[in-house]
Amino acid sequence: MSLPSNLNPDEASPPWLNKGDNSWQLTAATLVGLQSVSGLVILYGSIVKKKWAVNSAFMVLYAFAAVLVCWVGWGYRMAFGDKFIHFLRMPNISLDAQYLIEQAFLGYLPNATMIYFQFVFAAITLILVAGALLGRMNFLAWMLFVPLWLTFSYTITAYSIWCLEGWLSKKSIIDYSGGYVIHLSSGVGPRTTKDKERFPPNNIMLMLAGAGLLWMGWTGFNGGDPYTVSTDASLVVLNTHVCTATSLLTWLMLDIIFFGKPSVIGATQGMITGLVCITSTAGVVQGWAAILMGMMSGSIPWYTMMVLHKKIGLLKQVNDTMAVFHTHVVASSLGGILTGLFVVPKLNRLFYMVDNWQHYIGFFYGLHTGHTTAGFKQLGIQLLGIVFVVLLNIFTTSVICLLISLIIPLRLAEDELQTGDDAIHGEEAYALWGDGENYESKLNSIYEEFPPPSKGGEVQMNQLA
Q1: What phi and psi, each to the nearest 5 degrees, are found at residue 84?
Q2: Where is each Ammonium transporter AmtB-like domain found (predicted)?
């Protein structure tokens, strides 16, 4: 049986390359990239005060570019390269053409595709970290923080959980698309206790546009993780959106019941918690489990944010501009635990390609099938993963911030905190005058009229003078 000419293997398309899988993987990666440099640029730039719009959006853009350079320079090989030490692979560049066109470790794709796909996940992790720092961190300190945190925190977590040789991977931890590696990592770290002020959005319509891009981009975020165009990939996409919609509606109903108004910001937070919660387990649970997870991700983080945050002294110390602690730490931990309860053995076999009842079995299915010990073990591994990521990131983030503070202040100066974008970048998001000039720049004299007189008016005034 002969293949169509465009499917015949050749030097550029070797027999191991699956063109359909490769096409989807590049598309999925681009969707994840759009979550960052479109979705989160817009979301961050609009959900903060007007004076922080430029700084917040630019933190995203800078991180995206910086992570890519670091990723191909050494980061990818530290997470997925050759053996080095227990928690890390060997640092090495990923720019050699021969290496980039070789078969990746999962078989159907070239290394170049795998590097690109893993890069957009690394980038969005740093960008989510930025969500807790908006309007507070010195931008020059952020420029140092990004490559350091990528190198000494993200790569360790990615290797431990996602690399086939990682210690948690060998223990059969389930982290389908990054509930641990991305969302739990991005939400853990020390916070300053200052600047605990209300942060009203400067543009709710743009905030919703950014949130929409983030939601739709999750089709690639979760849907690309089977690394193949499979039935599992289709299940992933549907489960992701079902859980997210349920979470948004749950959060919305709680806001209406307890506060009397349907909050748009609250619905957005509920959307995010749903996306984060389902990420650990999107392709290995039933649809009804996705509904239950959405109900819990829309209610438990709501409770920690709206109730416990105001009552517990430790949570009161969390100064977190975008509520990343609740939307990511709480939601991702919840997702990891529910993974240990709900994952289906058959779906795990489709994804992990293993047929071993001692691994990848949810606690409830273990009880149902008589494999209770295996179910308990999986739940324990999920909890172990949460503890590891939390402790690792508290330690590494603290050390990195301490080192940076020896070179440059971590926090913005008081005058910069007061002024915002104009003091930091010399630019502002919204012009209040023609030709992009600000209202204040026109009032450089107490004798200047507002609005300025017309040209004819100026002539008349000169003649009177």
Answers
A1: -135, -80
A2: 24-430
Distance of CA 114 to the CA centre of its chain: 18
Helix axes 264-279, 204-223, angle to 10 degrees: 10
| Cβ count within 10 A of residue 5 | 7
* Dihedral Cα 455, 457, 458, 462, nearest 10 deg: 140
Rounded CA separation 385/388 (Å):
5
- Three-state DSSP class for residue 84: strand
Q: Residue 441: left if φ>0, alpha if ψ -120 to 50, beta else—which one?
A: alpha
How is the chain split into domains, by residue range?
19-418
**Residue 246 main-chain phi, psi, to 5 deg:** -65, -40
Residue type, 91: P
- For residue 457, the model assigns a pLDDT of 45
- Please tell me the pTM assigned to this model: 0.86
Which residues of the chain carry a pLDDT beneath 50? 187-196, 441-451, 453, 456-465
Domain 19-418 annotated CATH 1.10.3430.10: yes
Return the closest-CA partner of residue 178 out of 133, 218, 136: 218
Which residue is listed with tokens 């908006």?
Answer: 134
